[in-house]
Amino acid sequence: MSRVFGSVRAKATLGATVVVAIALVAAGAAVLLSLRANLNGQAGTEAERSAREVAADLSGGASYDRLRLDDDQRPVQVVDGKGVLVAASENLRRISGTGTGAVKPRAQRTAAPGSDGDAADDHGGGKGGDDKGGGDDNGGDGRGKDGRGRGAGADDDYSLEPGRIGAEVNFGEGSATLGGDTADYRFAAVEVSVKSKGALTVYAGAPLSAEQGAVRTALTVMLTGLPLLLAVVAAVTWRVTRRALRPVEGIRSEMAAITASEDLARRVPVPDTQDEVAGLARTTNETLAALETSVERQRRFVADASHELRSPIASLRTQLEVGAAHPELLDVTGAVEDTVRLQRLAADLLLLARLDAGERPAGTRFDLAGLAREEVSRRPGVTVEGASAEVVGSRGQMARLLGNLLDNARRHARSRVAVTLRAEGPWTVLEVADDGAGVPAAERERIFERFVRLDEARGRDDGGAGLGLAIARDVALRHGGTLTVGEARGGGALFTLRLPGHA
Q1: Which of these ranges, 374-378, 465-469, 486-490, has the smallest mean pLDDT?
Q2: Cα pseudo-dihedral 202, 207, 208, 211, rounded to 10
Q3: Is 143 helix (H, G, I), strand (E, B) or coil?
Q4: Is the pTM value of this prediction over 0.70?
Q5: Which DSSP state fits 328?
Q6: What digits encode the pLDDT tens for the residues 230-277?
Q7: How far is CA 28 from CA 21, 34, 98, 209, in A?
Q8: Would strands 364-367 and 181-194 be described as parallel, antiparallel, or unpaired?
Q9: Alpha-carbon gap, residue 429 to 420, rounded angstroms
Q10: R_g of the chain computed on alpha carbons
Q11: Residue 418 half-sphere exposure, CB side, CA atoms within 13 Å?
Q12: Is 3.30.565.10 the CATH number for 361-500?
């Protein structure tokens, strides 16, 4: 069970589900906030319209009892400058979120006719008229131009100068009880200034039931659909990852079979896709091919080394056995030569083993021209030309490289071997040329293989074990250089060594 939940398939499914869940929650929250904001805005617009209608009536001179406050769905309050409720919806029972919690307006005192508080002073009757307004231009019936004179209400003010309605609107939220129903409302507050009434504030509310219902519905749909959608995402991801990882399981099982059988000739299946899994399969097969080549090379190396060691050991044993039985027949010179040859072969094999193990050359700085002159001095008939050239690496390994090249050239030269050094940009170039038969173009890479001798008929004492050039190329590669063979100007072989130069 732990293996299933710890698999890439399970992790991918869990990750995809979590990401989708976060995205859906964020999107759902954004939708709910936007929906609520839009509906709140609509409710605020309705509340402002109601408040401005009442403010317009007040500005036009209507008395408090003539205001349009009979809407059973929208609570309205009118508050004077002292915060006293002067008008309200008739069926208002409770309210919060406005300037006052009062629901019953203050009782309005009717002013005595002709007194300073009489509204007639501000209307059609002039100062010289009687207290009944007999001088009214409307026929003396006591009514204003719209039929709502003093007889209709003492607070009516129909002067020629209308009130002023404020441009700013303040919004808030609260609740109210109209009749027997309690609900939440969006309130708008509009200020209006009337000459006979002073500064007033009109509070009007619009119900938020539509907004709350829509938000609840949307939230219910989201809470119901989110688990179902996540289940679908998880199921689809599980199936898709299973199909995508099926080739990986094929690669794993084939690699397990290769490990168990130790058969490096087998290859993992490559899917017919152009994705990362196909790239993994191809890389795995390339690695198996490289391992197969390396193992085969190692086996061939061991077999060839055993064959090469068998000859000098057998020859040396024969000479010693003959010497033990017949001391006068002991070939001391031949025994010494076989021993030296055996010693050199063992040293070559040991150096190749170190190079194969990835031994890094030392970082010693030395003069390649001076080293070449030292090696040439031990071999008559070899010339060297060139200025000093410093390189970095193992002086001992480089001496082995130069020695192997010179010995190979002397073995095949007719009369002359020449060594030249020069600089080519960032490279130090050393060339070893002879005037022998040269190397056929088809064999110029093969001669660098181990235990390869082009002239199989020549004796081992003359031709060596076929490791010299292989060691030389491996040393050059370990020093970041190259070693190639071509044709010299006068015929013969031309070995070219390129090493990174150092000023």
Answers
A1: 465-469
A2: -120
A3: coil
A4: no
A5: G
A6: 999 999 988 888 887 888 888 888 889 988 888 888 888 888 888 888
A7: 10, 10, 32, 21
A8: unpaired
A9: 8
A10: 55
A11: 15
A12: yes
